[in-house]
Design goal:
The chain is about 45% helix and about 15% strand. The chain is α/β, with parallel strands linked by helices and about 400 residues long. It folds into two domains: about 180 residues, 3-Layer(aba) Sandwich (Rossmann fold); about 180 residues, Glycogen Phosphorylase B (Rossmann fold, 3-Layer(aba) Sandwich), CATH 3.40.50.
Protein backbone atom coordinates (compact mmCIF):
# COMPACT_ATOMS: atom_id res chain seq x y z
CA UNK A 1 0.00 0.00 0.00
CA UNK A 2 1.34 3.46 -0.88
CA UNK A 3 0.06 6.95 -0.31
CA UNK A 4 -1.40 7.19 -3.83
CA UNK A 5 -4.33 5.15 -2.52
CA UNK A 6 -6.78 6.50 0.02
CA UNK A 7 -6.40 4.98 3.43
CA UNK A 8 -9.64 3.69 4.88
CA UNK A 9 -9.75 4.41 8.60
CA UNK A 10 -12.51 2.78 10.64
CA UNK A 11 -13.19 4.57 13.93
CA UNK A 12 -15.54 3.59 16.75
CA UNK A 13 -16.28 6.09 19.53
CA UNK A 14 -19.07 5.11 21.90
CA UNK A 15 -19.58 8.28 23.93
CA UNK A 16 -19.03 12.08 23.76
CA UNK A 17 -15.53 12.07 25.25
CA UNK A 18 -14.45 9.51 22.67
CA UNK A 19 -16.21 11.48 19.95
CA UNK A 20 -14.10 14.53 20.78
CA UNK A 21 -10.91 12.45 20.72
CA UNK A 22 -11.97 10.94 17.42
CA UNK A 23 -12.63 14.32 15.81
CA UNK A 24 -9.17 15.61 16.77
CA UNK A 25 -7.57 12.41 15.49
CA UNK A 26 -9.45 12.78 12.19
CA UNK A 27 -8.30 16.39 11.90
CA UNK A 28 -4.69 15.40 12.51
CA UNK A 29 -4.89 12.62 9.92
CA UNK A 30 -6.36 14.98 7.32
CA UNK A 31 -3.59 17.47 8.00
CA UNK A 32 -1.04 14.67 7.66
CA UNK A 33 -2.53 12.93 4.60
CA UNK A 34 -4.69 15.55 2.89
CA UNK A 35 -7.33 13.97 0.65
CA UNK A 36 -5.65 10.56 0.78
CA UNK A 37 -7.68 9.37 3.75
CA UNK A 38 -11.34 8.56 4.31
CA UNK A 39 -13.24 7.66 7.47
CA UNK A 40 -15.95 5.19 8.37
CA UNK A 41 -17.49 3.95 11.60
CA UNK A 42 -19.32 5.25 14.64
CA UNK A 43 -19.10 8.67 16.26
CA UNK A 44 -20.99 11.72 17.42
CA UNK A 45 -21.48 15.29 16.30
CA UNK A 46 -17.86 16.42 16.35
CA UNK A 47 -16.66 13.42 14.32
CA UNK A 48 -19.46 13.99 11.84
CA UNK A 49 -18.30 17.60 11.51
CA UNK A 50 -14.94 16.21 10.42
CA UNK A 51 -16.58 14.08 7.74
CA UNK A 52 -17.74 10.84 9.38
CA UNK A 53 -21.18 9.46 8.58
CA UNK A 54 -21.92 7.54 11.76
CA UNK A 55 -23.37 4.06 11.43
CA UNK A 56 -25.80 4.76 14.31
CA UNK A 57 -26.55 7.29 17.05
CA UNK A 58 -24.00 6.96 19.87
CA UNK A 59 -26.54 8.07 22.48
CA UNK A 60 -27.61 4.40 22.46
CA UNK A 61 -24.25 3.60 24.07
CA UNK A 62 -23.84 6.53 26.46
CA UNK A 63 -24.91 4.77 29.65
CA UNK A 64 -22.90 4.90 32.88
CA UNK A 65 -23.04 2.48 35.78
CA UNK A 66 -22.83 -1.28 36.23
CA UNK A 67 -26.52 -1.69 36.99
CA UNK A 68 -27.79 1.11 34.76
CA UNK A 69 -26.33 -0.46 31.60
CA UNK A 70 -28.34 -3.71 31.86
CA UNK A 71 -31.49 -2.50 30.01
CA UNK A 72 -29.32 -1.36 27.08
CA UNK A 73 -27.58 -4.71 26.53
CA UNK A 74 -29.80 -5.99 23.65
CA UNK A 75 -29.39 -2.74 21.73
CA UNK A 76 -25.63 -2.72 22.31
CA UNK A 77 -25.27 -6.31 21.07
CA UNK A 78 -27.22 -5.43 17.94
CA UNK A 79 -24.95 -2.47 17.28
CA UNK A 80 -21.86 -4.66 17.63
CA UNK A 81 -23.17 -6.91 14.85
CA UNK A 82 -23.86 -3.84 12.71
CA UNK A 83 -20.29 -2.63 13.15
CA UNK A 84 -18.75 -6.00 12.23
CA UNK A 85 -20.95 -6.28 9.14
CA UNK A 86 -19.98 -2.75 8.11
CA UNK A 87 -16.27 -3.50 8.55
CA UNK A 88 -16.64 -6.52 6.26
CA UNK A 89 -18.27 -4.33 3.62
CA UNK A 90 -15.91 -1.34 3.87
CA UNK A 91 -12.68 -3.39 4.16
CA UNK A 92 -10.77 -0.65 5.98
CA UNK A 93 -6.98 -0.55 6.42
CA UNK A 94 -7.22 -0.27 10.19
CA UNK A 95 -9.78 -0.42 13.00
CA UNK A 96 -9.40 2.05 15.87
CA UNK A 97 -11.75 1.99 18.83
CA UNK A 98 -11.70 4.94 21.19
CA UNK A 99 -12.17 4.65 24.95
CA UNK A 100 -15.17 2.65 26.36
CA UNK A 101 -13.20 -0.62 26.51
CA UNK A 102 -16.21 -2.60 27.72
CA UNK A 103 -17.92 -1.86 24.41
CA UNK A 104 -14.78 -1.65 22.27
CA UNK A 105 -13.46 -5.01 23.44
CA UNK A 106 -16.61 -6.69 22.17
CA UNK A 107 -16.10 -5.11 18.77
CA UNK A 108 -12.53 -6.41 18.63
CA UNK A 109 -13.49 -9.89 19.82
CA UNK A 110 -16.19 -10.10 17.16
CA UNK A 111 -13.80 -8.95 14.43
CA UNK A 112 -11.21 -11.52 15.56
CA UNK A 113 -13.86 -14.23 15.52
CA UNK A 114 -14.75 -13.38 11.91
CA UNK A 115 -11.04 -13.60 10.93
CA UNK A 116 -11.07 -10.14 9.39
CA UNK A 117 -7.44 -9.32 8.67
CA UNK A 118 -6.55 -5.75 9.59
CA UNK A 119 -4.64 -3.97 12.36
CA UNK A 120 -6.84 -3.59 15.43
CA UNK A 121 -6.00 -0.70 17.73
CA UNK A 122 -7.43 0.96 20.81
CA UNK A 123 -7.03 4.61 21.83
CA UNK A 124 -7.22 5.35 25.60
CA UNK A 125 -6.07 2.61 27.93
CA UNK A 126 -8.62 1.10 30.30
CA UNK A 127 -7.70 2.19 33.81
CA UNK A 128 -6.19 -1.11 34.93
CA UNK A 129 -4.25 0.79 37.59
CA UNK A 130 -7.66 1.51 39.16
CA UNK A 131 -9.59 -1.71 38.67
CA UNK A 132 -9.85 -4.91 36.61
CA UNK A 133 -6.06 -5.32 36.52
CA UNK A 134 -6.46 -8.67 34.75
CA UNK A 135 -7.50 -6.80 31.61
CA UNK A 136 -3.87 -5.88 31.01
CA UNK A 137 -2.96 -9.58 30.73
CA UNK A 138 -5.53 -10.41 28.05
CA UNK A 139 -5.89 -7.36 25.81
CA UNK A 140 -3.17 -8.59 23.41
CA UNK A 141 -5.59 -11.31 22.31
CA UNK A 142 -7.94 -8.77 20.80
CA UNK A 143 -5.87 -5.77 19.71
CA UNK A 144 -2.48 -5.26 18.09
CA UNK A 145 -1.63 -1.91 19.59
CA UNK A 146 -2.69 0.41 22.42
CA UNK A 147 -2.31 4.20 22.61
CA UNK A 148 -2.32 5.69 26.10
CA UNK A 149 -3.03 9.16 27.46
CA UNK A 150 -0.78 8.98 30.52
CA UNK A 151 2.97 8.39 30.57
CA UNK A 152 2.82 5.74 33.30
CA UNK A 153 0.27 3.53 31.52
CA UNK A 154 2.31 1.54 28.93
CA UNK A 155 4.18 -0.30 31.69
CA UNK A 156 0.94 -2.03 32.70
CA UNK A 157 0.52 -3.62 29.24
CA UNK A 158 3.92 -4.17 27.60
CA UNK A 159 4.87 -7.06 29.93
CA UNK A 160 1.83 -8.91 28.53
CA UNK A 161 2.76 -8.89 24.83
CA UNK A 162 0.83 -5.73 23.93
CA UNK A 163 2.70 -2.85 22.25
CA UNK A 164 1.59 0.31 24.05
CA UNK A 165 2.55 3.88 23.23
CA UNK A 166 2.12 7.05 25.25
CA UNK A 167 0.79 9.75 22.90
CA UNK A 168 -0.25 12.39 25.45
CA UNK A 169 -3.51 13.60 26.96
CA UNK A 170 -5.68 15.40 24.37
CA UNK A 171 -6.88 17.96 26.87
CA UNK A 172 -3.60 19.82 26.35
CA UNK A 173 -4.45 20.40 22.68
CA UNK A 174 -7.96 21.72 23.30
CA UNK A 175 -8.89 25.38 23.06
CA UNK A 176 -9.23 25.49 26.84
CA UNK A 177 -5.49 26.24 26.83
CA UNK A 178 -5.89 29.42 24.75
CA UNK A 179 -9.42 30.59 25.63
CA UNK A 180 -9.60 33.89 27.51
CA UNK A 181 -13.31 34.57 28.12
CA UNK A 182 -13.34 37.86 26.24
CA UNK A 183 -16.75 38.68 24.81
CA UNK A 184 -18.53 35.82 26.60
CA UNK A 185 -20.67 38.03 28.83
CA UNK A 186 -21.60 40.29 25.94
CA UNK A 187 -22.54 37.36 23.67
CA UNK A 188 -24.97 35.95 26.22
CA UNK A 189 -26.13 39.23 27.73
CA UNK A 190 -24.68 38.53 31.18
CA UNK A 191 -24.38 41.62 33.34
CA UNK A 192 -20.85 42.50 34.45
CA UNK A 193 -21.87 42.32 38.11
CA UNK A 194 -23.03 38.72 37.89
CA UNK A 195 -20.88 36.03 39.50
CA UNK A 196 -20.68 33.16 37.02
CA UNK A 197 -20.69 29.55 38.20
CA UNK A 198 -20.35 26.65 35.74
CA UNK A 199 -22.57 23.62 36.32
CA UNK A 200 -21.41 20.42 34.56
CA UNK A 201 -23.69 17.46 35.38
CA UNK A 202 -22.18 15.05 32.85
CA UNK A 203 -22.64 13.96 29.25
CA UNK A 204 -24.85 10.91 29.81
CA UNK A 205 -28.60 11.02 30.32
CA UNK A 206 -28.54 9.03 33.55
CA UNK A 207 -25.82 11.32 34.93
CA UNK A 208 -27.90 14.41 34.19
CA UNK A 209 -31.01 12.80 35.67
CA UNK A 210 -29.22 12.05 38.94
CA UNK A 211 -26.94 15.05 39.28
CA UNK A 212 -28.62 18.10 37.77
CA UNK A 213 -31.47 18.23 40.34
CA UNK A 214 -28.82 18.28 43.09
CA UNK A 215 -26.84 20.98 41.27
CA UNK A 216 -30.03 23.04 40.82
CA UNK A 217 -30.84 22.75 44.52
CA UNK A 218 -27.28 23.84 45.32
CA UNK A 219 -27.64 26.84 42.99
CA UNK A 220 -30.90 27.88 44.65
CA UNK A 221 -29.25 27.79 48.06
CA UNK A 222 -26.44 29.96 46.75
CA UNK A 223 -28.84 32.51 45.25
CA UNK A 224 -30.58 32.90 48.61
CA UNK A 225 -27.26 34.20 49.97
CA UNK A 226 -26.29 36.25 46.91
CA UNK A 227 -28.72 37.17 44.14
CA UNK A 228 -25.88 38.02 41.78
CA UNK A 229 -25.03 34.39 40.99
CA UNK A 230 -25.49 33.40 37.34
CA UNK A 231 -25.19 29.80 36.15
CA UNK A 232 -23.69 28.56 32.89
CA UNK A 233 -24.31 24.98 31.79
CA UNK A 234 -21.96 23.78 29.03
CA UNK A 235 -23.44 20.59 27.59
CA UNK A 236 -23.39 18.23 24.61
CA UNK A 237 -26.04 17.18 22.12
CA UNK A 238 -26.67 13.82 23.84
CA UNK A 239 -28.22 15.54 26.86
CA UNK A 240 -28.90 19.12 25.73
CA UNK A 241 -32.69 18.75 25.61
CA UNK A 242 -32.77 17.11 29.04
CA UNK A 243 -30.69 19.92 30.54
CA UNK A 244 -32.86 22.62 28.98
CA UNK A 245 -36.09 21.02 30.19
CA UNK A 246 -34.84 20.68 33.75
CA UNK A 247 -33.36 24.18 33.89
CA UNK A 248 -36.53 25.77 32.48
CA UNK A 249 -38.30 24.93 35.74
CA UNK A 250 -35.46 26.06 38.02
CA UNK A 251 -36.23 29.77 38.33
CA UNK A 252 -32.49 30.51 38.14
CA UNK A 253 -30.60 32.98 35.97
CA UNK A 254 -28.76 30.71 33.56
CA UNK A 255 -27.72 29.90 30.02
CA UNK A 256 -27.18 26.49 28.38
CA UNK A 257 -24.34 26.44 25.85
CA UNK A 258 -23.73 23.64 23.40
CA UNK A 259 -20.40 24.25 21.71
CA UNK A 260 -16.80 23.64 22.67
CA UNK A 261 -15.54 27.19 22.06
CA UNK A 262 -18.10 28.81 24.34
CA UNK A 263 -17.62 26.10 26.98
CA UNK A 264 -13.97 27.01 27.28
CA UNK A 265 -14.77 30.72 27.23
CA UNK A 266 -17.24 30.09 30.06
CA UNK A 267 -14.57 28.40 32.15
CA UNK A 268 -12.38 31.48 31.98
CA UNK A 269 -15.12 33.77 33.32
CA UNK A 270 -16.34 31.36 36.01
CA UNK A 271 -15.50 32.00 39.64
CA UNK A 272 -16.02 28.32 40.35
CA UNK A 273 -17.53 25.13 38.94
CA UNK A 274 -19.47 22.10 40.11
CA UNK A 275 -18.74 19.09 37.91
CA UNK A 276 -19.36 15.41 37.45
CA UNK A 277 -16.16 13.39 37.32
CA UNK A 278 -14.53 12.98 33.92
CA UNK A 279 -12.38 14.74 31.34
CA UNK A 280 -14.15 18.04 31.95
CA UNK A 281 -12.61 18.17 35.42
CA UNK A 282 -9.16 18.03 33.84
CA UNK A 283 -10.17 20.88 31.52
CA UNK A 284 -11.20 22.90 34.55
CA UNK A 285 -7.81 22.24 36.14
CA UNK A 286 -5.98 23.47 33.04
CA UNK A 287 -8.18 26.58 32.97
CA UNK A 288 -7.36 27.07 36.69
CA UNK A 289 -11.07 27.14 37.59
CA UNK A 290 -11.71 26.41 41.30
CA UNK A 291 -14.03 23.41 41.37
CA UNK A 292 -15.36 20.42 43.21
CA UNK A 293 -16.42 16.99 41.95
CA UNK A 294 -19.92 15.78 42.84
CA UNK A 295 -21.12 12.38 41.70
CA UNK A 296 -23.74 9.81 42.55
CA UNK A 297 -24.68 6.43 41.08
CA UNK A 298 -27.16 3.71 41.99
CA UNK A 299 -26.44 2.26 45.49
CA UNK A 300 -25.61 -1.20 44.15
CA UNK A 301 -23.26 0.28 41.54
CA UNK A 302 -21.56 2.31 44.27
CA UNK A 303 -21.15 -0.79 46.45
CA UNK A 304 -19.63 -2.78 43.60
CA UNK A 305 -17.27 0.04 42.60
CA UNK A 306 -16.13 0.51 46.19
CA UNK A 307 -15.13 -3.15 46.37
CA UNK A 308 -13.56 -3.27 42.90
CA UNK A 309 -11.59 -0.03 42.65
CA UNK A 310 -7.97 -0.01 43.74
CA UNK A 311 -7.47 3.76 43.91
CA UNK A 312 -7.88 6.36 46.59
CA UNK A 313 -9.38 9.04 44.30
CA UNK A 314 -11.65 9.24 41.24
CA UNK A 315 -10.60 12.67 39.98
CA UNK A 316 -7.62 12.57 37.61
CA UNK A 317 -5.96 15.67 39.09
CA UNK A 318 -6.00 14.02 42.50
CA UNK A 319 -4.79 10.71 41.05
CA UNK A 320 -1.88 12.34 39.21
CA UNK A 321 -0.78 14.22 42.32
CA UNK A 322 -1.47 11.41 44.78
CA UNK A 323 -3.37 13.77 47.08
CA UNK A 324 -6.73 15.51 47.14
CA UNK A 325 -6.73 19.06 45.84
CA UNK A 326 -10.23 18.79 44.37
CA UNK A 327 -12.91 17.78 46.89
CA UNK A 328 -14.67 14.59 45.80
CA UNK A 329 -18.24 14.65 47.07
CA UNK A 330 -19.46 11.17 46.20
CA UNK A 331 -22.68 9.30 46.98
CA UNK A 332 -24.12 10.46 50.34
CA UNK A 333 -21.69 13.42 50.34
CA UNK A 334 -23.16 14.53 47.01
CA UNK A 335 -25.94 16.68 48.44
CA UNK A 336 -26.78 20.35 48.02
CA UNK A 337 -25.78 21.73 51.42
CA UNK A 338 -22.39 20.02 51.30
CA UNK A 339 -21.68 21.11 47.73
CA UNK A 340 -22.70 24.68 48.55
CA UNK A 341 -20.40 24.76 51.56
CA UNK A 342 -17.38 23.59 49.56
CA UNK A 343 -18.02 25.99 46.64
CA UNK A 344 -18.47 29.01 48.88
CA UNK A 345 -15.31 28.05 50.77
CA UNK A 346 -13.37 27.90 47.49
CA UNK A 347 -14.71 31.28 46.43
CA UNK A 348 -13.30 32.90 49.59
CA UNK A 349 -9.86 32.19 48.05
CA UNK A 350 -8.40 30.80 51.26
CA UNK A 351 -6.30 27.70 51.91
CA UNK A 352 -8.36 25.31 49.76
CA UNK A 353 -8.28 27.73 46.82
CA UNK A 354 -4.52 28.24 47.09
CA UNK A 355 -3.94 24.47 47.37
CA UNK A 356 -5.96 23.92 44.20
CA UNK A 357 -4.17 26.58 42.18
CA UNK A 358 -0.74 25.23 43.13
CA UNK A 359 -1.90 21.71 42.33
CA UNK A 360 -3.27 22.71 38.93
CA UNK A 361 0.16 24.05 37.96
CA UNK A 362 1.71 20.67 38.74
CA UNK A 363 -1.04 18.81 36.85
CA UNK A 364 -0.33 20.86 33.71
CA UNK A 365 3.36 20.01 34.04
CA UNK A 366 2.64 16.28 34.43
CA UNK A 367 0.48 16.23 31.29
CA UNK A 368 3.23 17.99 29.33
CA UNK A 369 3.17 19.78 25.99
CA UNK A 370 5.58 18.47 23.37
CA UNK A 371 6.41 19.53 19.82
CA UNK A 372 3.51 17.50 18.47
CA UNK A 373 -0.02 17.28 19.78
CA UNK A 374 -1.35 13.99 21.19
CA UNK A 375 -3.51 13.58 18.08
CA UNK A 376 -0.49 14.01 15.82
CA UNK A 377 1.40 11.46 17.89
CA UNK A 378 -1.54 9.06 17.64
CA UNK A 379 -1.68 9.59 13.88
CA UNK A 380 1.96 8.52 13.50
CA UNK A 381 1.43 5.41 15.65
CA UNK A 382 -1.59 4.43 13.54
CA UNK A 383 0.29 4.84 10.26
CA UNK A 384 3.12 2.70 11.61
CA UNK A 385 0.63 -0.13 12.22
CA UNK A 386 -0.79 -0.19 8.69
CA UNK A 387 0.97 -2.93 6.79
CA UNK A 388 2.76 -1.69 3.70
CA UNK A 389 2.10 1.97 4.36
CA UNK A 390 5.01 4.15 3.24
CA UNK A 391 5.42 7.57 4.77
Amino acid sequence: MTTNKKLKIYLVAGEPSGDLLGSRLMRAMKERLGDKVEFFGVGGDTMEEEGLLSLFDITDLAVMGIIEVIPSIPKVLRHIKEVVTDIKEKQPDVLITIDSWSFSSRIHKAVRKEHIKLPQMHYVAPQVWAWKKKRAKTMYKYIDCLMTLLAQEPKYFTPYHLPAYFVGHPVIESDVVVADGKGFREKYGIDGGKRIISLLPGSRKNEVTKLLPIFIETAKRMVKKDKNFYFVLPTVSTVENNVKKMMAKSGLDYVVIDNEKDRYQAFHVSEAAIAASGTVALELAIAKVPHIIAYRVAPLTAWLVKHLLHIQFVNLSNILLGREIVPELLQERCEAANIENHILTLMKKGTLYEKQQAGFEKVCHLLGMGERTPSENACEVILSQIKGYKK
